[in-house]
Amino acid sequence: MSAEALYDVMSTQRAIRRLRSDPIPDDVLSRILTAATWAPSGGNQQPWRMIVVRDTMKKKALGDMYTTLWEKFAAMYRKRFEGLSAEEQAKEERTITAGDYLCAHFHEVPAVAIVCFNPKMMAVTDAKQDRISVVGGGSVYPAVQNLMLACRAEGVGCVLTTLLCQVEGDVKSLLSIPDDWYTCAAVPMGYPVGGGYGPIKRRGADELFFEDVWKQQISL
Amino acid sequence: MSAEALYDVMSTQRAIRRLRSDPIPDDVLSRILTAATWAPSGGNQQPWRMIVVRDTMKKKALGDMYTTLWEKFAAMYRKRFEGLSAEEQAKEERTITAGDYLCAHFHEVPAVAIVCFNPKMMAVTDAKQDRISVVGGGSVYPAVQNLMLACRAEGVGCVLTTLLCQVEGDVKSLLSIPDDWYTCAAVPMGYPVGGGYGPIKRRGADELFFEDVWKQQISL
Question: Closest Cα partner for A29 from A52, A59, A56?
Answer without folding.
Answer: A52
